């Protein structure tokens, strides 16, 4: 007989799903909001900006500025940077 998931397991699953969706939305926000500045001013500008606004990194679940920049490069393969 298959065991039914406990209430705690079910709640954890729903919370994890909600947090994952929130992180995805925060990452999309960074991509949409700062992509233009990144293209216009370059990577150093974005790096400095992110270093001074670490809450953006934290909210989007990035471990570091480099982690964020690597994700941005992978997510914006169709644009060319200066």
Protein model, in words:
- There is one protein chain.
- This protein is mainly alpha-helical and 82 residues long.
- The protein has a domain at 28-76.
- The protein is 76% helix and 0% strand.
- It is built from four helices and no strands.
- It has helices at 7-41, 43-52, 54-59, 65-75.
- The radius of gyration is 17 Å and the shape is elongated.
- Mean pLDDT is 82; it is low at 78-82.
End-to-end distance, in Å? 61 Å
Overall average pLDDT: 82
Strand content: under 5%
Name the assembly state: single chain
Q: How much helical structure, as a percent, in the residues? A: over 70%
Poorly predicted runs are 78-82
The number of helices is 4
Gyration radius, rounded: 17 Å
What is the H-and-E element order? HHHH
Choose one word for the global shape: elongated
Summarize the helices and strands and which ones pair or pack:
Elements: H1 7-41, H2 43-52, H3 54-59, H4 65-75
Helix pairs in contact: 1-2
Short note summarizing the structure:
The protein has 82 residues and is an all-alpha fold.
List its salient traits.
single chain; mainly alpha; 4 helices; disordered C terminus; 82 residues
